[in-house]
Amino acid sequence: MTDPILAGPDCTTMIEVRAGVDQVDRELIALLARRFAYMDAAARIKPARDAVRDEGRKAQVVSNAITAAEAAGLPADVIADLWDALVEASIAYELKAFDRRG
């Protein structure tokens, strides 16, 4: 039986911290898989390759993340950088998915 994963504030050892981080990372990967499935759907639905990049939508997604980060007490600048990288990676993935359509 494995030890329960503690909430961050309840951790008293680095073993507990690392176990929590590893669990969160697994959860993030599962969420990213869900997000990228939407990129597959977008690549299937969009009529043309040049429709994949939408700077207005990118700005909206990053802005939404910043707003949510601020509400959660997280550093907005760090979240903005993470989401910019996430959206760029998603666009690159979607372009490849679009090209596979044939």
Automatic annotation (TrEMBL):
Database matches in SMART domains: CM_2 (SM00830)
Keyword tRNA processing listed:
no
Q: What is the lineage of its organism?
A: Bacteria, Pseudomonadati, Pseudomonadota, Alphaproteobacteria, Sphingomonadales
Q: Which residues form the Chorismate mutase domain?
A: 8-98
Leader sequence residues: none
Supply the InterPro entries for this chain: Chorismate_II_sf, Chorismate_mutase-related, CM_dom_sf, CM_II_prokaryot, Isochorismate_pyruvate-lyase
What enzyme class is recorded for this protein?
A: isomerase
**EC number(s) stated in the UniProt entry for this protein:** 5.4.99.5
Keywords, ordered alphabetically: Isomerase
Q: What is this protein called?
A: chorismate mutase
